[in-house]
Amino acid sequence: MRADRLIAMLMLLQTKGRMTAQELSDRLEVSTRTVYRDLDALSASGVPVYAERGPNGGCELLERYRTNLTGLTEPEVKALFMFTVPNLMADLGADKASEAAMLKLTASLPAPFQKNADEVRSKLHLDAAGWFQPKDPVPYLAMLQDAVWQEQRVRMEYRRGDGRWVKRLIDPLGLVAKASVWYVVGAIYGGMTMVYRVSRIQSAEVTGSHFVRPVNFDLNAFWQAWVDQFEQKQASFSVSIRVQPEGVVSLTHQLGEGVMQLVMAAESMAQDGSVVIDLQFASVEDACQKLAGLGTAVQILTPDSLRQHLAEHAKSLLEMYE
């Protein structure tokens, strides 16, 4: 256990540079006293590491010191080879480079770990694409990727979700792939940070002007907060339905496996086997679109506005095909 910790400390100092004893303590989940003992152990083994006390002090390796020791454990090797998603790498034009990097990494591993890497590749495949969904066209993804790396502003024409066309000048801070859909996170005038679906960009160009990336911007933290807020905003229309046994499978196909959990957790079941569950939708139109095709297997109990909307929808269909 201590050997793993010493290797982890060495890797941290090699990649991060100077770190305080408290920072090492937090990352390694040990006390600062243990950190200093481990530093002494590294020094005694010939690693040129030193610590300076005081407000501006810290722990670091002597300049230009590097080690080829990977320090990877068996679970870490497996985790490393799990993270690549081929189709997303291909979107970024990095599929060949990723494959070459993995081959080099495999070759550098000890023989027992090479077997672990091969085992992961043969037993686990990550497919980010959704079922029955056409692939989003992303002709400007490569350009956005370059702009993100080089921190250059982008001028674009964008189609919003409501169909309106807008022009935007953004500082592209990062790219995010949710399932197989790409988004660019960009700062606009006034300091606001917005999210744009890449497939909705109708035209774009790099302006040639550079921007300064905010020092404290954390893409992962921003995205999680944005997703939470977006989902909370979207799930604002509550619907109560009665589901017949024959409708459970169709409803699950339409709305996802979470429906099955709601059905199983229903408080009571009627004599005909039906249950009442509550669902969340973005709007009355969204609920109508997703539930209309389920026919009589699903009965809308509330709200009345959705019942009326579905009745009008059924009348218009009847008139069309009479």
Task: Describe this protein's structure.
By secondary structure, the protein is an alpha+beta fold. It has 4 domains: 2-61, Winged helix-like DNA-binding domain superfamily/Winged helix DNA-binding domain (Arc Repressor Mutant, subunit A); 74-123, no CATH class; 141-232, Roll (SH3 type barrels); 237-321, Alpha-Beta Plaits. The chain is built from 13 helices and 10 strands. Strands 6-5-4-3-7 form a 5-stranded antiparallel beta sheet. The longest helix is centred in the last third of the chain and has 18 residues, at 304-321.
Q: What would the principal axes of the Cα set say about the shape?
A: extended
Q: CATH fold name of the largest domain, please? A: SH3 type barrels
Tally of helical runs: 13
Q: Give the termini separation.
A: 76 Å
Q: Helical percent range? A: 40-55%
Largest sheet: 5 strands, antiparallel
Overall mean confidence score, pLDDT: 84
CATH architecture of the largest domain: Roll
Which structural class matches the secondary elements?
A: alpha+beta
Low-confidence stretches: none
The count of DSSP E runs of length 2 or more, i.e. the number of strands, is 10
Radius of gyration: 27 Å
**Level-1 CATH class name of the largest domain:** Mainly Beta
Order of helices and strands: HHHEEHHHHHEEEEEHEHHEHEH
Instruction: Identify the strand order in the major beta sheet.
Output: 6-5-4-3-7
Number of domains: 4
